[in-house]
Hints:
The protein is α+β, with helices and mostly antiparallel strands and 175 residues long. It has 2 domains: 2-53; 83-166, Immunoglobulin-like (Sandwich). Helix content is 35%, strand content 30%. The strands form 3 sheets. The protein has a 5-stranded antiparallel beta sheet with strand order 5-4-7-8-10. Strands 6-3-9 form a 3-stranded mixed beta sheet, with helices on one face. A two-stranded antiparallel ribbon has the order 1-2. The longest helix is centred in the first third of the chain and has 40 residues, at 16-55. The protein is elongated. The mean pLDDT is 76.
Amino acid sequence: MSFVRGWRKARRSSRPIFGGLLFTFLVLTVSGHAWAQATVEYGSATSAMGSAAAKRKPAESVSFPTAPGNKSLHVPLPKDPTPDLTNRRVLEQRAGKDAGKLLLRSVPSDARVWIDGLFVGKTPLLLVLVPGSYRVEMSGARMEFGEQRIPLLPRENRVLVMALAPRYPAQVNLR
C-alpha cells in the first residue's frame, strides 16, 4: 500500500523524472524475470526430452494397429484398375486377329467416351475392337454431347472426330 501512495505522490510532485525512472525500473525488472523464467523452463523441457530420447532404444520393427483377424484398420488402396481401363481391356481381349482400330477425337477435346454404354476413357483415345457396329457417345465438360453409330470392318483403321453440341440451348425465347 505504501508503494502506491509513493507512486501517486511522485506523480503529483514536481519531479516527474523519479516516477518515470521508477516505472522503467519496475517494467524491466518484472519483464526480465518473466523472460528469465521462460528461458529456464524451455531449457529444462528440451533437455529432459533430449535425455529421454537418448535413453530410448531404437525400434526394431514398426507395427500398425490391426483389427481382429489380423486385418489393417486403414482404408486399403484399390488393387483393381479404374473402370475405364477395365472396360478397355475387356474390349481389346475380345478383339482377336482381325481387330479394327478406332481413333476417337472430339471438339472440344477431353470429352468422356462411352462405347455401347461402357465408359472407356477420355478423348483422344485409340481403341482396338472386334469388327462390328458400335454406338459411340461423347460428353464434354460443359454439357456438350454427341452420339454416332460407327461400323468397323476387319483390320480397318478408322478416325472419328465428333463435334460436340450443347445439350441444352444457351438462349430461351419467351412469347
